[in-house]
Design goal:
With about 130 residues, the chain is mainly alpha-helical. It has helices spanning about 5-30, 30-55, 60-90. It is elongated, with a radius of gyration of 21 Å. The protein starts with a helix and ends in a 37-residue tail after the last helix.
Amino acid sequence: MSVLDAIGGTLMVAGAALSLLAAIGLHRFPDVFARMHAATKPATLGLVLLVAGAAAVVEQGSVGLKLGLAAALQFITAPVASHMVGRSAYRSGTPLSPDTVLDELAGRSGRPDRPPPEPPAAGDAGIA
């Protein structure tokens, strides 16, 4: 077994572990907004580690380029998809977790179940 095989195996195990953590997060987190983070952040890093491990083991350069393209497309598409899922869930009135402390978009994005924030008092510059 060569050094590249050991490095590739280690990277693939780490990537599989992160992908497993993402799956557990999808199951355990309380609302769609927490779940979208679990679906994108560790899963994307897990895929990149898997791709890097596979590229270290594979001896053909063209396969490594294809794997790099797959990782690049994952980095481009996953954040955009997560943002769109979160935005549409928020606008459609998906309930927030009871543990949510701050809703910075309340009253500004057309969410039906939240009242708009109070306007600043007269003479207040709106600086908190």
